[in-house]
Amino acid sequence: MCWRCFSTLNISHPEAPLEALPGASSRRGFLNHWGAGLGLAALVHADAQAQVDVGQSSSMRKLIPAESLEQSARQQYRQTLSEANSKGALAPDDYPQLKRLRAIANRLIPFTSQWNPDARKWKWEVNLIGSKQLNAWCIPGGKIAFYTGILDQLQLNDDEVAMIMGHEMAHALREHARERLAKSKATSMGLSVASQLLGLGQLGDVAANVGTQLLTLKYSRDDETEADLVGLEIAARGGFKPEASVQLWKKMLGATGGGKGQPSFLSTHPSGANRIEELEANLPKVQHLYQQAIRG
Ligand SMILES: [Zn+2]
Q1: Is the pTM of this model over 0.85?
Q2: How far is the CA of 168 from the centre of ligand 1 (A)?
Q3: How far is the CA of 166 from the centre of ligand 1 (A)?
């Protein structure tokens, strides 16, 4: 999960270095990606209406043009992969853990566009980077990275990986980065929301220069809850056990000492315990989606 998502848990190694992966040097086309074609094998079941309740996305996000932000995200993604590749830390296409991640993504992607119609046009990409970081992220436009640390240290099963991937996809689908950037820019300019909306139009220059900010952006407590619930629903529709979301967080708490002594600057993020309660309360809403998926 993204460092910002994990930040509530005081997980160590946020900046752990890249590590060469066995076999990574044989990688040929490391900028592999796939479009909507892969993943369409899964049929979208009936009952397309959202089951979890997360409300509307903030209209503030519209101040940042989505296309500019996605272009910036693409550049950042290329740069991150290129750096990893130069250190032999980018998994080749035939790397078993990467194949596993992409197979899971293929089961989730068909259920993303109901949360953001633009996602139909996204060229989803999934890559695996060698590093002890407990980290994974999905930046605007559907560019996903997992780090080997999160898979290895938490010994994640497929259901748990799907919960993390769904959570990260949800941040991108709900355009949380776009919203964060719009709000921080409006604040730094000392402008009210109204004056932004009425007078200044879109902040294209902001989106063009976000670069590494996309990888370190801190989401709000509400963003995290939204991502947990939307991710849970996407994963359930993909046929992954909803209970894995709870198991995942218990596992993380176990791995990080329960998040005790959390610095106050992280207090705006939901605690692990709250997350688990919220997820448990929402399990009944998505159970039938999971049952439909595994029957289908
Ligand atoms: Zn998150």
Answers
A1: no
A2: 6
A3: 10
Cα gap 245→234, rounded to integer Å = 12
Contact 177, 140 (CB under 8 A): yes
**In the predicted model, what is the mean pLDDT of residues 249-266?**
54
> pLDDT > 90: what percent of the chain?
45
Tell me how far apart the alpha carbons of residues 160 and 153 are, in angstroms, rounded to a whole number.
13
CA of 170 to the centre of ligand 1 (A): 8
Listed residues: CB within 5 A of ion ligand 1: 5, 227
What letter would DSSP give residue 186? H
> Per-residue pLDDT for 281 more than 80?
yes
| Ligand 1 centroid from CA 290, angstroms | 22
- The pLDDT score that the predictor gives to residue 204 is 56
Sequence-ordered list of residues with C-beta below 8 angstroms from that of 237, at least 6 positions apart, any chain:
45, 108, 111, 286, 289, 290, 292, 293
